[in-house]
User: Which sequence fits this backbone?
């Protein structure tokens, strides 16, 4: 499998994501936001960071980058896209996922470890309902707000939700229904606020993120 | 009329400048002399004293004098790092002042050709500065988080002395491949000079020469009149420029690189020329502007952020400009490197300034260094406070602003971006794993201003010792130091003497511990009226970690482990946090380090590390042994973990629990290795003893000569975690927070 | 040249944490304010002689970029 | 109840990186805009019958909290 990782001006988790992918049996290629081809990749990651400084609204300016047209075409052709943190914001801003991400109710940037749980299985991917991942978040605008015109449950689902250590619902930032990630119903477009690439080695604090990426790239969820 | 007085020069300096030129300087030339001969740019008061810090030959790759110091980590990496202050701008505008401080030190590291991998920030505020602190913390997060360099630690401390003079010091650490470096002084005549980054506006003109080189006599009125336009931090452009500079450097076409900081183009060009023994000639008309009608004076002195300078051989200019434009950063060819050794400025074809570059840099007037002095060293009294220890005192110390958890601050910084962070904020220092080679980096900053309150020499020495102990406790082998020095007005004889003593203390400590000082920063005029800050040395220590993936820090404690104290408790409570809880704001003198004993402790610690013995290690600092052990306990995931220790029975309970004597470290080691521990202590000549054991009681228990005291984990936690902040932290000032 | 002012606010019903905090501080300071909301005020110049035209452009920019219809509403005003 | 609108903008000459970035993208999208600046628009209600009074309160709040005098300027408008 070949995965493209897009660098927007101001992305800062692009290299981290490439490095995490290098620990999986996939080929990963970097792509610049002005590129209009994805180097033959069948899946693409929009990484975390502050594209265009998150000026105006997080993800709003990057949603107009030339590469986003190509990403849309890829999805229409059956490819997959994963938006991580800023990438998730870019996906909602460009309408590829419903809803919006607003300022955390704490009014603060929050960098900490959280637990998330899979709420819905997605076609074609071996995420198990109820499966949990321990992952870092690092964002100031991570509060999910649903779109009344495109409610979740139709063409898109509340894929991941925040949980506390004991598996009870937990809400670090005021997200609607503890939503931590959203996916299109067909599983082709996924966005999540936590950073799987930051949990890709034991010495980084855990490997759940690597497991997440392994499942997303078509593998299974069995720990390596 | 522009003359010596309007640019901050004394009449005597004015005469000297005119003499150097052999004529009356033009308006622009006055501006250049004023900026470059300012305290902030020229180090005129400090340079001769800073010479005491010069490292012995061979210990550093690049020492003081460059944009950042450089030491060798191993065959794969060199480390560039430096501490810089942004105190005055942060007082005037906390959010952008702090943000631009972060941006500025990052560019210094980039200018050495190193990729920035970590930041730490050291902050000092008055006791009731919630709003100022909020602005500064927000500003640091705003810039560091967005530019994508993790903030892996720092310090937050308070004191009456910082009330009108907050300190904001930032450390940036970068790595580069050996041989891949660059510096400011390697241009060749004929090279083109390229200005990269943001368009120039009227930002911060005179920031360096006036704002940071004077006292705040009447802060509001004065800062109000001295400030044309506040510098705004733009981490987005900052990141674009940083990435672009390091990318073009890889192409191998660049001759020299220099960041634009204080005094903007004028200082950057003078440095390039002065250090390289060449001349520079720029055409101000070719500098892209943000505003209409800017004079050459304004263009040359603007402190607009997010700009860098390059020099390129003319044949490679087109290629470099093309690459920069593909990377979507602005770049303009603004002039030529010449052989005449002068800094010349042209406007509309005419030369409007031409000054021998060396006279702007090395030629700046300098204050003579006093005798290298170490005293008077004030010795603290032996244990004095009378009365018996009350158990609540310990909770009071643990919850004191100096000791309590700083998590509510550091959780607002991205400490994980770049995915190198093995140990981040919340430990004695940070450990980073690098992509290549076996070794990791250990980083710590310490600036115990309180220990300088009575005696700057001791304070400087203790700051170095504490930073080195922290690096060693994290498993590192110290390889370099950088120092940020923050004082009042050097025109005040007492302050100047403190400065000399502070530097002497640092120099002696660096010598005693065999770690080179590679650079740093001096910030004077942290003074309002006669209120001056404590002479505060913020010391950054960088170390090599031979096994970063296994870094231990506070570790995981198990009931099969014993606790040892390396070093010796002392009997005074002078200069401790316990002393501060008396509430008079006077810490009293601190104990100067005993170097023989300090070296023995460090030696024992590193040999324990080499033998892989410690399962956890934590030094004794703010709050004494009590706080050290409470923090170790609270860091445990398992709520059942307990610690049961017996303190030095020769000391009153209070002294035993709260003394902050130098060079004490607690380590936890599997019980069955006791023999190995004692052997290493003995052969290192390190005093030390078994303190007690890890238990399953879920509590911290002390056996003292005044009885046995037990603190359940929940009680400790409640004292240590600050109350949820409800102060006006939603101040609108500053951007990046409106949705 | 026409100067266009575009004001963007969170929709009624979307929580505005910054606004809430500021209102709280103002009340602490003795200002009895209510319903405080913080939005963005964007000013820009467009090269359009006719005011109508400028307003149309302003709306278009707001719809396509400056406001997010999921959580925000906007208004446009032109002054020449 | 009077509704007070407080508009806070960066002073002339103070760099507005967010405004620059937005203008850049709008131009990429084909909108030829200039001098784009982003400020804050704060709306709030005060319990004051007289408009004058509300305006005075608005100015006071702006001076004391809502605007940062070091780098921002503001204007106040009251609609009842
Ligand atoms: N306290 C100090 N200790 C050691 N070196 C210092 C100290 N202060 C300044 N220096 C050195 O003096 C030089 C000039 O410092 P500075 O003007 O702060 O550099 P820059 O303008 O690049 O930020 C640097 O090489 C710096 O390392
Ligand atoms: Mg520099």
Assistant:
């Amino acid at each position: 499998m070949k995965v493209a990782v897009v660098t927007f001006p101001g992305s800062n988790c692009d290299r981290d994501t490439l490095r995490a992918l290098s620990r999986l049996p996939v080929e990963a290629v970097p792509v610049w936001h002005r590129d209009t081809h994805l180097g033959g990749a069948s899946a693409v990651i929009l990484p975390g960071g502050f594209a265009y400084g998150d000026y105006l609204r997080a993800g709003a300016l990057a949603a107009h980058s030339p590469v986003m047209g190509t990403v849309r075409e890829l999805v229409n052709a059956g490819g997959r896209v994963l938006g991580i943190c800023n990438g998730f914001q870019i996906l909602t801003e460009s309408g590829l996922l419903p809803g919006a991400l607003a300022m955390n109710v704490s009014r603060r940037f929050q960098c900490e470890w959280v637990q998330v749980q899979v709420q819905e299985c997605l076609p074609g991917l071996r995420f198990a309902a109820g499966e949990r991942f321990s992952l870092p978040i690092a964002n100031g605008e991570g509060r999910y707000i649903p779109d009344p015109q495109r409610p979740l449950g139709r063409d898109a689902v509340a894929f991941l939700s925040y949980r506390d250590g004991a598996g009870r619902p937990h809400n670090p930032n005021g997200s609607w229904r503890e939503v931590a990630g959203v996916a299109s119903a067909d599983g082709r477009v996924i966005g999540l606020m936590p950073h799987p690439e930051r949990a890709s080695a034991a010495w980084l604090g855990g490997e759940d993120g690597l497991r997440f990426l392994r499942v997303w790239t078509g593998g299974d969820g069995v720990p390596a | 009329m522009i003359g010596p007085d309007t640019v901050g020069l004394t009449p005597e300096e004015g005469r000297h400048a005119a003499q150097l030129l052999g004529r009356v300087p033009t308006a622009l030339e006055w501006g250049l002399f004023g900026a470059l001969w300012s305290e902030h740019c020229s180090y005129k008061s400090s340079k001769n004293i800073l010479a005491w810090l010069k490292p012995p030959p061979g210990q550093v790759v690049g020492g003081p004098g460059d944009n950042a110091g450089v030491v060798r980590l191993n065959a794969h990496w060199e480390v560039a790092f430096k501490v810089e202050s942004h105190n005055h701008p942060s007082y005037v505008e906390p959010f952008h002042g702090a943000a631009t401080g972060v941006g500025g030190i990052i560019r210094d590291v980039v200018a050495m050709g190193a990729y920035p991998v970590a930041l730490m920030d050291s902050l000092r505020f008055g006791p009731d500065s919630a709003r100022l602190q909020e602005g500064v913390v927000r500003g640091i997060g705003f810039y560091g988080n967005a530019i994508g360099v993790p903030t892996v630690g720092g310090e937050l401390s308070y004191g009456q002395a910082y009330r009108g003079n907050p300190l904001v010091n930032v450390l940036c650490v970068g790595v580069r491949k050996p041989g891949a470096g660059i510096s400011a002084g390697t241009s060749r005549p004929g090279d083109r000079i390229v200005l990269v980054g943001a368009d120039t506006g009227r930002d911060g003109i005179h920031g360096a020469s006036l704002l940071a080189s004077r006292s705040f006599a009447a802060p509001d009125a004065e800062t109000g009149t001295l400030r044309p336009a506040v510098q705004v931090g733009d981490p987005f452009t900052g990141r674009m420029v940083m990435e672009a500079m390091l990318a073009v450097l890889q192409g191998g076409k660049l001759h020299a690189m220099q960041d634009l900081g204080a005094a903007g183009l004028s200082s950057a060009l003078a440095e390039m020329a002065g250090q390289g023994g060449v001349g520079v000639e720029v055409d101000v008309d070719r500098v892209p502007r943000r505003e209409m009608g800017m004079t050459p004076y304004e263009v040359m002195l603007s402190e607009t952020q997010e700009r860098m300078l390059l020099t390129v051989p003319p044949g490679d200019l087109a290629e470099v400009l093309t690459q920069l434009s593909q990377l979507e950063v602005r770049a303009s060819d603004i002039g030529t490197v010449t052989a005449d050794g002068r800094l010349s400025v042209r406007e509309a074809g005419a030369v409007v300034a031409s000054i021998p570059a060396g006279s702007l840099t090395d030629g700046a007037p300098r204050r003579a260094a006093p005798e290298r002095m170490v005293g008077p060293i004030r010795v603290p009294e032996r244990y004095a406070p009378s009365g018996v220890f009350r158990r609540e005192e310990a909770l009071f110390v643990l919850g004191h602003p100096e000791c309590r958890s700083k998590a509510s601050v550091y959780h607002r910084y991205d400490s994980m971006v770049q995915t190198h962070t093995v140990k981040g904020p919340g430990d004695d220092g940070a450990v980073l794993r690098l992509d290549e080679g076996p070794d990791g980096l250990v980083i710590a900053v310490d600036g115990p201003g309180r220990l300088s309150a009575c005696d700057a020499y001791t304070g400087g020495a203790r700051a170095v010792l504490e930073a080195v102990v922290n690096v060693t406790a994290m498993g590192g082998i110290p390889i370099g130091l950088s120092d940020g020095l923050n004082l009042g007005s050097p025109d005040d004889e007492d302050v100047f003497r403190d400065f000399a003593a502070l530097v002497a203390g640092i120099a002696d400590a660096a010598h005693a511990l065999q770690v080179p000082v590679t650079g740093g920063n001096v910030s004077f005029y942290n003074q309002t009226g006669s209120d001056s800050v404590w002479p505060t040395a913020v010391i950054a220590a960088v170390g090599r970690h031979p096994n970063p993936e296994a870094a231990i820090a506070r570790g995981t404690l198990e009931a099969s482990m014993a606790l040892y104290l390396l070093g010796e408790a002392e009997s005074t409570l002078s200069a401790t946090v316990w002393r501060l809880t008396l509430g008079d704001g006077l810490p009293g003198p601190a104990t100067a380090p005993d170097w023989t004993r300090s070296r023995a402790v460090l030696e024992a610690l590193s040999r324990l590390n080499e033998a892989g013995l410690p399962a956890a290690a934590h030094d004794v600092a703010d709050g004494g042994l009590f706080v050290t052990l409470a923090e170790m306990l609270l860091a445990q995931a398992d709520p059942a973990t307990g610690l049961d220790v017996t303190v030095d029975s020769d000391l009153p309970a209070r002294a035993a629990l709260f003394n902050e004597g130098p060079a004490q470290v607690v380590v936890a080691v599997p019980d069955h290795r006791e023999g190995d521990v004692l052997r290493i202590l003995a052969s290192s000549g390190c005093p030390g003893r078994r303190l007690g054991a890890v238990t399953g009681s879920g509590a911290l228990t002390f056996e003292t000569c005044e009885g046995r005291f037990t603190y359940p984990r929940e009680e400790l936690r409640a004292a240590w975690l600050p109350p949820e902040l409800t102060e006006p932290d939603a101040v609108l000032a500053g951007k990046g927070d409106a949705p | 040249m026409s100067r266009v002012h575009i004001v963007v606010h969170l929709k009624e019903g979307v929580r505005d944490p910054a606004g809430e905090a500021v209102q709280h501080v103002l009340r602490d300071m003795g200002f009895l304010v209510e319903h405080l909301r913080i939005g963005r005020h964007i000013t820009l110049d467009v090269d359009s002689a006719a005011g109508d035209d400028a307003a149309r452009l302003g709306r278009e920019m707001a719809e396509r970029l400056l406001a997010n219809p999921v959580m925000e509403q906007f208004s446009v005003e032109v002054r020449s």
In short: The interface with chain B takes residues 10, 16, 18, 21-22, 24-25, 28, 38-40 of chain C (CB under 8 Å). Residues 9 and 28 of chain C are 25 Å apart (CA to CA).
